Amino acid sequence: MFDNKYCYSFPTVRGQQAGRPFYIATCPLRIIPKIFLFDEEEVPAELRAQRSLNRTRLPEMVRYLVDNPKEYVFSSLTASVGTEVRFIPHEGAHDLGILQVPMDAEILINDGQHRRAAIEEALKEMPELGQDNISVLFFVDEGLKRSQQMFADLNKYAVKPSPSISALYDFRDSSACIARYLSMEVKPFIGYTEMEFSTVSPKSAKLFTLSSIKQATQILLSKTARSKFDDSDLQLAVSFWQGCYSAISEWQQVHSKELSPANFRQEFIHAHGIGLHALGHLGRSLLRQHPADWQSKLQNLNKIDWRKSNPIWDNRALHHGKLSKASSNIKLTANILRQALDLQLEGDDKKLEKEFSSNHV
């Protein structure tokens, strides 16, 4: 029997899917941690309706909320109510009304447990966020089997966006802002940057992905994805990549239409992300060892034979004849560039080169 003396009341829109009702409500953030539970008990996965909470994801989500209180966007939570509910329609509006949920009902998060946990932590730092709202999609629970199927269905077709399109649309990421500028204003990237996908198709007229430009520039500037990048970083990145362009004849031939992008990718190392990343590593060493004359030293890149057929790339850029994106392969490729510019190998790069030499005598 439904007891409406002690219940939560949510302004709600009622809908229907697969013959079952569901309810869309808006809830103040401050009540989310209090009434929405997540099955966090240490029980086997087969007895849970949700994956375990990955707490390493929370700090970044919390910082996103706290640092962007006027701009953040959180998508809906999906929850199951483990008891009978009551929907009271407004007069003249059949599917608009009030959803009443008993206070002793178990309300479990089916999708959005990390958002819920992040909200809870963010409210400790910024209680005023509690006045904001988040939408919640309510289903009436039909047992563990149904809840597990709901979780599988909700996540089955979720596709994470590619790193390139994420960089294209993320205006809070300062390294992405630099990468976008480089792609549109600086050779060799102007007109040859794949903005949407994380790989370049064989027949594409593009050369580099936006994500590769972003990552290679982070390496160049000795920064991480979470670092702040300023105008001096941008100016340095522009100077470096323009210097590379002026020293690499194949890049120039592509821009002058003397060499097609497809043929360039087929025959050369530096038509791919591994070449770009290796140049980033080279640039980092060059800036550290020759802060005053690095630009003139960079011109020695014209001495390098970048063709895949050059045996110098075997077991470095190429593994069993195929390009390798492994970190060690990128660094070994960068070591060849360092040697061509008479740079000293330092630290891990020197150790890696020594191991390579002992294994490939």
Task: Write up this protein.
- Residues 42-47 have low confidence and may be disordered.
- Strand 4 and strand 5 (93-102) form a beta hairpin.
- The chain is α+β, with helices and mostly antiparallel strands and 361 residues long.
- Helices cover 42% and strands 17% of the residues.
- The strands form three sheets. It has a seven-stranded mixed beta sheet. Strands 8-9 form a two-stranded parallel ribbon. Strands 10-11 form a two-stranded antiparallel sheet.
- It has helices spanning 32-35, 58-67, 113-125, 144-156, 163-169, 174-185, 210-220, 231-247, 249-255, 261-267, 273-289, 294-298, 327-340, 347-359; strands at residues 7-17, 20-28, 77-81, 86-90, 93-102, 107-111, 133-140, 193-194, 208-209, 318-319, 322-323.
- The protein contains 14 helices and eleven strands.
